[in-house]
TrEMBL record:
One GO CC term on file: nucleus
Every Paired domain range: 3-78
Protein name: Paired domain-containing protein
Biological classification of the source: Eukaryota, Metazoa, Ecdysozoa, Arthropoda, Hexapoda
Compartment(s) of residence: Nucleus
GO biological process, one term: regulation of DNA-templated transcription
Single GO term (MF): DNA binding
Highest taxon, organism lineage: Eukaryota
InterPro entries: Homeodomain-like_sf, Paired_dom, RNaseH_sf
SUPFAM superfamilies hit by this protein: Homeodomain-like
Transmembrane segments: none
């Protein structure tokens, strides 16, 4: 391009017109505007080199501003992007660009977790140490209750429908029905590294008090199926600190009839992150349920049983084997909640 401008200049100094210059340099296929601008630039400035256009200067996303946003996020990751934009006198779009492009940050939804009091936190550390010391090497049977509701699951953040307008989306696709008195099924489940005990349905309308729990869950269900699963091998039974579980008659029965069990004084309160059913199994079952709106109650129970029975043994074993690792994580985090990669 520079050589073309130089040839245009030489021919211009020789007295040729713009049209004659273009004809002379026809092999270069120069536009009329290019020749005109080159000659005009030379006559006005004495040079054929065009001025470099300055790039668009950042008016907001300067290094100092990016550093200031980074420091604010470091002090408080829960800051609102819109609020920071107003405080720093910039557009929301500019703030989002800084957060996502310049700082490489992503927005995550806050999670709901069980609250922990200072006593809970201290007990979690003490009892986790005790469990590691007194029950290391045991084959555990982990147990828990879960209420499954006969409703289609919905993820408010990720469940989307697409259309040019909402009215074009079929009604049954754009909404998930919720009923005030939706049917629900309460189940009791138990798992171990040797396999699962059969899923137990709690009768509708039954309140799980100490007598019902002892007779129908422990005596009629846990005891015979645990013997069938383990034979003459020893096992250690786990249950959380629900009122029916820590009742004195229940604790005494477990002491007399089970080879080993985690007593109410040993299990850390408010610790679903230590029970494999809570941190793994129930979530797996909810994910497998899918759309249940066309099922009746019997059909719903059948589906729950099918999911339970077909649950991979490898997944169950892996969930149980994570228990001791999670106890150590509690100790490492000094009783606070933790993340397992």
């Amino acid at each position: 391009m520079e050589s073309s401008r130089e040839q245009i200049k030489i021919l211009h100094l020789q007295g040729l017109t713009n049209i004659q210059i273009r004809r002379k340099l026809s092999h270069l296929n120069l536009s009329r505007l290019f020749v005109y601008r080159t000659i005009k630039r030379y006559e006005e400035t004495g040079t054929i080199v065009p001025k470099k256009k300055p790039g668009k200067k950042r008016s907001v996303r300067t290094p100092a501003v990016i550093k200031a946003v980074k420091e604010r996020i470091r002090r408080n990751p829960a800051r609102s992007g819109r609020k920071m934009a107003r405080e720093m006198n910039m557009s929301h779009f500019a703030m989002q660009t800084i957060l996502k492009k310049d700082l490489g940050l992503k927005a995550f939804r806050k999670q709901k977790i069980h609250g922990l009091t200072s006593k809970n936190i201290a007990d979690r550390v003490t009892r986790s140490r005790l469990l590691l010391k007194t029950h290391a090497g045991h084959n555990f049977i982990f147990s828990d209750e879960k209420l499954f509701t006969l409703e289609a699951p919905m993820n408010k953040q990720n469940d989307r429908v697409y259309g040019t307008c909402i009215r074009e989306v079929p009604r049954d696709k754009r909404a998930v029905e919720r009923f005030q008195n939706a049917s629900a099924v309460m189940v009791w489940g138990a798992i171990s590294t040797k396999g699962k005990l059969p899923l137990l349905f709690i009768d509708k309308g039954v309140k799980i008090n100490k007598n019902y729990y002892l007779e129908h869950v422990l005596q009629d269900h846990l005891e015979p199926y645990a013997k069938k699963l383990f034979g003459n091998d020893s096992f250690c039974f786990q249950q959380d600190s629900a009122p029916a579980h820590k009742a004195s008659i229940v604790q005494e029965w477990c002491k007399e009839h089970l080879p080993c069990f985690i007593s109410a004084s040993e299990w850390p309160a408010s610790s679903p992150d230590l029970n494999p059913l809570d941190y793994s199994i129930w979530g797996y079952m909810l994910g497998k349920l899918g759309d249940v709106k066309n099922l009746n109650l019997d059909g719903f129970k059948t589906r729950l049983l099918k999911i339970w029975d077909e649950m991979p043994d490898e997944m169950v074993r892996a969930a149980c084997n994570d228990f001791q690792k999670r106890l150590r994580a509690v100790i490492k985090c000094k009783g606070e909640r933790f993340e397992i990669n």
